[in-house]
Amino acid sequence: MDRQAYSQLEQQITPKAPLGLNLLKAFVTGGFICVIGQAIMYFYMYFFDFTERTAGNPTVATMIFIAMLLTGFGKYKRIAQFGGAGSAVPVTGFGNAMISAAIEHRTEGYVLGVGGNMFKLAGSVIVFGVFSAFVVALIKTILVKFGVVGW
Amino acid sequence: MVARGVIHFGSRPTIRAAAVAAGPTEKKKSPFSHQFDRLYDSDLCGQKTNEQAHRQLIEDVCDLALNKAGKTISDADYLVCGDLVNEMTPSNFAAASTGLPYVGLFSACATSTSALSYAALLTEAGAASLVLAGAASHHSAIERQFRYPVEYGFQKPQNAQWTVTAAGIAAITPHEPGYPSIVQATVGRVVDYGLTDPLNMGAAMAPAAFDTFRRHLEAAGREPEDYDVIITGDLGAIGTELFRKMATEAGYTVEGERWRDAGKEYYGGDPAFFSGASGAGCSAAIYFSDVYNRIMDGEYKRALLMATGALLSPLSFQQGESIPCTCHAVELVMGEGENG
Amino acid sequence: MTASFLIAFVVGGLICVIGQLLFDVAKLSPGHTLCLLVVSGAVLDGFGLYEPLIDFAGAGATIPITSFGNSLTHGALQEAEKHGIVGVITGMFEVTSSGISAAILFGFIASLLFRSKGRP
């Protein structure tokens, strides 16, 4: 069997991801995590001195705290197996990426292991976020300077 | 005329004993666990790190194999084994603690059979009266190296495989009646069909398995029906199906109980492990427990062990390279008289 | 208030559906997918589109990682408005430091408390 014929056979036999089901699971999981976020946000707004604008920061921090507990007790990977992107895309997934790396590399010591590897997975998100934000903001600032658009 | 890569062992070295040690997931989930010689309740096997646990598995299984053979470490001449951790440090440390002359072999998950054939060569050459040969893997130590941190959440597809925590060691001696003899080994070529998905290793390895399978049978002048069992290493459910399709298309009759795959059977087809088990310890654990026991019980007279290995690294994968694969075959025969 | 939960559920869920499509259809790795979403968030804020989404969906828009890109751009633009071009560089983390600082803090605490468990 040559490579091409094998490649076709491989495509046939390898099971396709059940797209509809995966999308539904991602929708429900992601939606549910955002609902929890909304509830935490209201909590900070009603019980503390936060506005709708400023409640976002403590909400994110609390969500990552929950992600720490779920990751540490080995539950987050199960949620992820079910929810796919539904658990990866929310900020809890970002937290899970950093926390799982920190736990994993603890055996190499706190400086080289935990410190050095914490951003192993999440680092690229920060890098691309910062760089794209820089480019976007730079373009917009220049456009504003030349009077093409307003703030 | 000698077929390329095929070794006939005229002296018929024997596997005098074989032993397996495995981790807690195996204890709970593997239908073969009652045949394993030692099962741990903790992934750490009483050590501080996964890598130390990995080494502990190898050390323990060496002791177990020696015990079962009725020998001590001072009777052994060589240790031939390997694992999947960078530079095979678990095997290296285990070799240090045994104090044996040591050859570390890397054939990824095909190490169980490459170690067997290397040990048989040492024996055939008259260089050894007892060789410990085998392979091992430790789930957490391997996952974090090849994929993601163990607790990182990502959705594994149906074709993913689960790296086992297990070590298997066989004690090879010059021919002794009443034990399985190694009569032929086929050294695998590296076959690369251009597959790139590291979560579909079974599919990447199947062509390598078929290549070695055909070369081995041609050199032996045998048909699949001559074997009581033809057991591949860790193709998993998907790789096994592909391997059988390739064999069928080449005109071999693929049916019956004799066609097995260690990875597919390792966790009893539990869907929590997707396509099945993988890892260097997977084939070693099944070959050196279930298959060995069945040979000793007389159920199998002639067995073909074909451990498969995907020879990738995280670096080669990230650089966009395909997955080169290999498969090493070893033929075991029980009983005297007939030539191998 | 019930409506706001429902909107957060639907909008947050839909952003995750986009992520799942990138996983399953575009065959991107989790890393590539998340980077793409962050960049999308940053670009959307450049067009002034993400803040209205937050006003509409609340946590449905602030919890997905796209919000991180949005906050970075937003911080940069806020500072640029005050200090010109230099603000683009200095302002990025003005709005969004809580996610990263929380992840670093809890990541470190987790490494003190937990071990990984190789179970399915």
UniProtKB/TrEMBL annotation, chain A:
Keyword Transmembrane part of the UniProt annotation: yes
Keyword Transmembrane helix part of the UniProt annotation: yes
Highest taxon above the source species: Bacteria
Keywords: Membrane, Transmembrane, Transmembrane helix
Chain segments annotated as transmembrane: 21-43, 55-73, 85-103, 123-143
Matches recorded under PANTHER family: STAGE V SPORULATION PROTEIN AC, STAGE V SPORULATION PROTEIN AC-RELATED
Name recorded for this polypeptide: Stage V sporulation protein AC
Native source species: Bhargavaea changchunensis
TrEMBL record, chain B:
Family matches, as Pfam families: SpoVAD (PF07451)
SUPFAM superfamilies referenced in this protein's UniProt entry, alphabetically: Thiolase-like
InterPro entries attached to this UniProt entry: SpoVAD, SpoVAD_sf, Thiolase-like
Transmembrane segments: none
Gene3D superfamilies: Stage V sporulation protein AD (3.40.47.40)
Domain of life: Bacteria
Protein name: Stage V sporulation protein AD
Species for this entry: Bhargavaea changchunensis
UniProtKB/TrEMBL annotation, chain C:
Key words of the record: Membrane, Transmembrane, Transmembrane helix
Transmembrane segments: 6-26, 95-114
Pfam families: SpoVAC_SpoVAEB (PF03862)
Protein name (database record): Stage V sporulation protein AE
Annotated source species: Bhargavaea changchunensis
Xref: InterPro entries: Spore_V_AE, SpoVA
Superkingdom to which the source organism belongs: Bacteria
